[in-house]
Write a structure and sequence with these properties.
single chain; mainly alpha; two-stranded antiparallel ribbon; 2 strands; 6% strand; DNA-binding; DNA-binding transcription factor activity
């Protein structure tokens, strides 16, 4: 995982977990890697991973079984979709609209680009 400077590392780790849950890599009641396992895998401080887990736990995405580990909450997908949709609508779309207006991109160009993305994305996931 490569981290970007514009976003806190713990938020990027939480996003990584969120994406894996939404993609079905981890499903409800699945045990997720321990804090130490993730810290080693991502080459970050365990406290950073713990902060990401705390963030996800507060959002109701994961829960802790004392002495056993962290698990995906039964309502994680629904919760994540609601959170990400709200963020997308408030943060990403306004910037997207601004850019397509500035660049005079029409709906046909957007549709073609989206169809190409879907084709490429499906291919990547099958590999």
């Amino acid at each position: 995982m490569e981290f970007k400077e514009r976003k806190s590392i713990y938020v990027q780790i939480a996003d990584y977990f969120s994406d894996n849950i939404l993609k079905g890599v981890w499903q409800k009641e699945d045990r997720i890697p321990s804090v130490r396992e993730m810290a080693v895998q991502l080459e970050v401080n365990p406290n950073t991973v713990m902060r990401a887990y705390a963030h996800l736990q507060e959002a109701g995405v994961i829960y802790n079984k004392r002495g056993i580990g962290y698990f995906v909450s039964p309502g994680a997908v629904k919760e994540l979709k609601a959170m990400k949709k709200e963020d997308f609508m408030k943060q990403t779309l306004p910037e997207f609209y601004r850019m397509i207006t500035l660049l005079d991109i029409n709906i046909q160009e957007l549709t073609e680009g989206y169809e190409k993305f879907l084709k490429d994305e499906v291919y990547e996931e099958e590999c």
